[in-house]
Amino acid sequence: MGALTSYRLRLQRKRWHLRARRKSRELTSVIDRTDKIKPGDILVFSTFRNEDIRLPYFLKYYRDLGADHFIMIDNMSEDDGADFVANQPDVSLWRANGSYRRSRFGVDWLNHLQRKYADGHWTLVVDPDEFFVYPFCDTRPIRALTDWLDASDIRSFGAMLLDMYPKGRMDAVPYQRGQNPMEIATWFDSGNYTISKNHLYYNLWIQGGPRARMFFRDEPWRAPALNKTPLIKWDRRYAYVSSTHMVLPRGLNLVYDEWGGEKASGILLHAKFLDTFGEKAKEELSRNEHYANSHEYRAYAQGIADHPDLWCKWSEKYINWRQLEILGLMSKGNWA
Amino acid sequence: MSVGVVMLVHTALHRAEQVIRHWSAAGCPVVIHVDKNVGRKTYDEFVASLSDLDDVIFSKRHRCEWGTWGIVAASQSASALMLKKFPAVRHVYLASGSCLPLRPIGDLKDYLAKRPRTDFIESATTADVPWTQGGLDFERFTLRFPFSWRKQRFLFDRYVELQRRLKMHRRLPDGIIPHMGSQWWCLTRQTLSAILEDPERSVYDTYFKRVWIPDESYFQTLVRLYSQNIESRSLTLSKFDYQGKPHIFYDDHLQLLRRSDCFVARKIWPHADQLYDHFLNEENPLKGAEPNPGKIDRIFSKAVERRTRGRAGLFMQSRLPRPGHENGFTSAPYSVFEGFTELFEDFEPWLARMTGTRVHGHLYATDRVHFEGNQTTFSGALCDNAKLRDHHAQLFLINLIWNTRGERQCFQFGPTDTQFASWDLAKDPNAQISVISGAWAIPLFQSNRNFSDIRANAAELQRIESEHISALRSSHAKARVRVWTLADFIETPMEALQTVLDEMGAKNLRRVTEAPKMADLTGFGQFLQNLKNQGMHPYLMGDFPADNAPAPARPTRRKPYLVR
Questions:
Q1: Where is this region: Disordered (chain B) (predicted)?
Q2: Confidence category of residue B469, pLDDT binned at 50, 70, 90
């Protein structure tokens, strides 16, 4: 039975690869600097649309962590984000003229580019509103982490999505281009997450946080998944299945310990809930290009109209990774 | 020229070069062994880069793969070369390319000069010390290991299994008692040359070539044959994690390393610029102190414990223990009260006053979560929504107890609540569960409803509670459980309450003087009789006389009498 399932998943993986190749026809190279990628470089992959305001800080954040090259996909932005990104010396940019939803929310495009350029590299797949935090990230660059993972024979590193939000109305403080979004969205939920295991793909399914608390009270099973495996030593045989929540081969999803111990893990600070969010939710709703018929965005649009304050008196104010470690949201594992 | 360094190098050659220059500048000759896996060109460049140093020479290269003989062969040929080329050397220090001297080399020289006949090598018998992971300790010496552990793991494991099953053994050479220890040693010329020039050496070498991880046992075993004075510890600070891989030092360990007073540390991350800058350039003002790696030990052993045992009661993205492997289902003790709020009118505030703990209402109520003070959210931003809670009722409890570490939680539970967590409560050793069985009948008794509804409801509640109690009494139950029937409880309520509070171990708890107010039970016996008459037999509350209310309509306040 196990062998049969493995084989089925193998076929499924091949299918995703084929699909990625088919969808790659929607990609046109805007600027290709991939010849600058050296062996062992750490790559960041990202898809964006109308994120001009966020991109400068996004690039700065990951450069400071020690990322070497960015491979970005612009999904028909109407602002100046693409121009800005194209002028950066460490970015290669593609333009995707296709439906975000029908490329399975960018996964097909990313799978294609990763297969082509990321083989043998540590790759970080993040959205422009996700900021990767790992143990000792204030004192050690990301290469220290990947070297340690290499030395420990670990191929993938999990990082849960942690929704950050401001206190008060989301539109109270406008976000400035280049600003650290965590200066505004400082708060998070520290301990209301639920976890269950996917027995086919082995990944965890984590839900909860302010989105479940505010927008999915009546249908908690519909709340968005927060588990992610964004950092993987990529091999051209790998394929993301659903965003970065699941990846094949499924062994890569085993970023947790089942025998009582803690594996090392990180956090993706999710600075989605800024003043830009209301606009975005409306736009995405009309485009209908998001997961499960934009159910999520519909819930937001509704929720935002009702009560835009995600903050409650038990919200926790973000300080640093050590705080997240103590709260039990991430772990150092045996990295010391 | 009392100390010579044998250095095994395979990566980060520029760092090795820095350290070699440091040793050499302090007057220590260095013999370098470069792994044969390093390409010819890189090797030549490396040799050229060090050609200006006279007392730095390169030895014959061997292919070094982790866990194989190559590393021993490398140490042998390099040490032999060292002894031959530098006759003044008294101590030979084995180091790797990622070792970093933490104290001035002069300190090390003085230290060794004062102990001219001492061999520093960690060497423990396998019989007494559980040294390794994965069950291979003594078997390292008695089985054969022709397959690579890294590259042919499957064959490696199968072949070990096969040998175990067939009870295959290798014979140890005469006179050898297996010892193991850290591979980084510092030996005297006398001992080292005795090992290298032993007439029996070929026998030993043949034997150890098939031992697993011989670099941790070859010198450690043979040194026992020749040394006059073994100090069984390594001068190199080197810590291993639970898989036998060395821990790595980074820039943020600078202060720890400074204070450790160790001579040499490994393994240093090649990009740890601050560490290299600091220790290679600045004089470390340490004088004569013995190495004291205690603090570093603690940090690393805590890390290993976190990886292997984890934090009790934490369920998170990288820790999802299977049932039975939680090492503590919840993180702290808590108390569950069943039937108390039904019997006493002001039980919750009373309990909070008496114990100073956090007292919630029915957390698993069907309408919503009754947090203390009816808050809509609680610690960790838990939400009072019943659907969200029931989405994962177990984790709701685990989260609640985790979020409130350091403060004892009490909550009410009963057959009117959702029962998803019933078994989890019963199985959790941290739960202290006190039950007044049958107390759910009191609200029914007080209610203004049609008797047929009450009867149906009572039958349902009785079924649920009896199921719950059988969970509490099953052989899987690990909670501290106390069950009274309602009739028993109201006989001596104060004593029962006192027992519960004593068990909670509340600090500064004097005798309970003030009683919670009990509900008026006049006519309750008749109510139960009516249920019986309707064919619904209420058995969980014990024996109530049918005629009148039992005596303690007002709580008994017994004074303690002392008989002298």
A1: 545-564
A2: very high
Domain ranges of chain A: 2-327
State whether A259 and B325 contact (CB < 8 Å): yes
- Cβ atoms of A226 and A242 within 8 Å: the answer is no
Q: Any CB–CB contact under 8 A between A328 and chain B?
A: yes
Residue A278 predicted with pLDDT over 80? no
Distance in angstroms (rounded) separating the CA atoms of residues A175 and A163? 17
* Structural domains of chain B, with CATH: 3-132+176-282 (3.90.550), 334-533 (3.40.50)
β-sheet bridge partners, residue B434: B337, B482
Q: Are A76 and A49 in contact (CB under 8 A)?
A: yes
Amino acid identity, position B480? R
> Which B-chain residues 222-261 have CB contacts (< 8 A) with chain A?
241-243, 245, 247-248, 250-252
Architecture of the domain whose range is A2-327: Alpha-Beta Complex (3.90)
Cα dihedral B134, B137, B143, B147 in deg (nearest 10): 40
Q: ipTM value of the model?
A: 0.93
| Contact call for B388 and A197, based on CB within 8 A | no
pLDDT at position B259 is: 85
From chain A, pick out residues whose CB is under 8 angstroms from the CB of B250. 136, 139-140, 144
Residue written as tokens 């509804």? B453
Does residue A40 contact residue A115 with C-beta atoms inside 8 Å? no
- pLDDT over 70, % of chain B: 93
- Report CB contact under 8 Å: A256, B300: no
Residue A117 near residue A43, CB atoms below 8 Å: yes
Which residue, chain included where needed, has tokens 């790992």? A134
CB contact under 8 Å between A263 and B319, yes or no, is yes
